[in-house]
Automatic annotation (TrEMBL):
Organism expressing this protein natively: Streptacidiphilus cavernicola
Pfam families assigned: Methyltransf_25
Keywords: Methyltransferase, Transferase
InterPro entries for the chain: Methyltransf_25, SAM-dependent_MTases_sf
PANTHER family: TRANS-ACONITATE 2-METHYLTRANSFERASE-RELATED
Protein name listed in UniProt: Class I SAM-dependent methyltransferase
Domain Methyltransferase, first and last residues per copy: 54-144
Entries under Gene3D superfamilies matching the protein: Vaccinia Virus protein VP39
Length: 216
C-alpha cells in the first residue's frame, strides 16, 4: 500500500467545493436508467457470490452508497475528503462512512464482496493507477465484483488523456488499458458498456462502465 503524492491537492480541492458538489450531483442517478441497471446487476452479482460487504470508493456525499443499500447490499463509503464524508454522514446517518485513500485502504485482504469506483479514479495520475488498481484487487474476495466507471479516451490506442476539470486535473482512460491493468492483478473483465455523451453534456466524452470479478 502506498500514499499518492497527488492526494493532498485532490482532497483539499474537494473539501473546498464539497457542499456545492453535493447540491449539484446527489441526484445524478435519477436520469441515468442504464447506470441504475448496471448497479442492480452489480448488486445481484455480489449477492450471488457470497453477499460480502461492498465499499463505495470515492463515495463523495454518499448518494450512491445509499442507493446500494436500497439494493440490499451491505455497503459503506470511503472518500479522501473529510468534508465529503461529513456531508455523507449528515445525509445518511444510518450508514457507515470513512475517510481514506483508494491507494491505502484500511481494509483487510480479501474482505469485500464488491467494490464500486464511480468516477473516483479520474484524478489518479497515470503513473499511480497501477497501485490503485492493485489495492482494489487486494481488498476483494475471490469471486468478488468490481464496477468501475470513468471517462474513456476516444482512441483505444491512447492509454490516457488529461483534461481540464472544474475541481482538479483529471484523466480519461482507454477501456482496454484499464481492463489490462485489472487483469495484471487478477481481476478479469466480465462486461463493459461505453455510453456516448448527450449533446447537452458538459463534457463530450464517452463514459466507461466496466464490470469485473476477482479470479480464483
Amino acid at each position: 500500500m502506498v500514499e499518492l503524492d497527488s492526494l493532498p491537492a485532490t482532497r483539499d480541492a474537494y473539501d473546498a467545493v464539497a457542499r456545492r458538489y453535493a447540491q449539484l450531483f446527489t441526484d445524478t442517478l435519477h436520469d441515468r436508467p442504464l447506470e441504475r441497471a448496471l448497479l442492480a446487476a452489480f448488486a445481484e452479482s455480489v449477492r450471488a457470490s457470497g453477499d460480502g460487504e461492498v465499499a463505495d470508493l470515492g463515495c463523495g456525499p454518499g448518494h450512491v452508497t445509499a442507493h446500494l443499500r436500497r439494493l440490499g447490499l451491505r455497503a459503506f463509503g470511503v472518500d479522501a475528503s473529510p468534508a465529503m464524508i461529513g456531508l455523507a454522514q449528515e445525509a445518511n446517518p444510518e450508514l457507515r462512512f470513512e475517510v481514506g485513500s483508494m491507494a491505502a485502504l484500511d481494509i483487510a485482504d480479501g474482505a469485500l464482496g464488491g467494490v464500486i469506483s464511480r468516477f473516483s479514479i479520474i484524478h489518479t495520475p497515470p503513473q499511480d493507477l497501477p497501485a490503485v488498481v492493485a489495492e482494489l484487487a487486494r481488498v476483494l474476495a475471490v469471486g468478488g465484483h468490481l464496477l468501475i466507471s470513468c471517462y474513456a479516451t476516444d482512441d483505444a490506442a491512447i492509454p490516457t488523456q488529461s483534461f481540464d476539470h472544474s475541481v482538479v486535473t483529471a484523466y480519461r482512460w482507454s477501456p482496454d488499458h484499464l481492463a489490462g491493468l485489472l487483469y495484471d492483478v487478477g481481476v478479469s473483465e466480465v462486461a463493459r458498456v461505453l455510453c456516448r455523451p448527450k449533446p447537452t453534456d458538459k463534457r463530450q466524452f464517452q463514459e466507461l462502465q466496466l464490470l469485473a470479478a476477482k479470479n480464483a
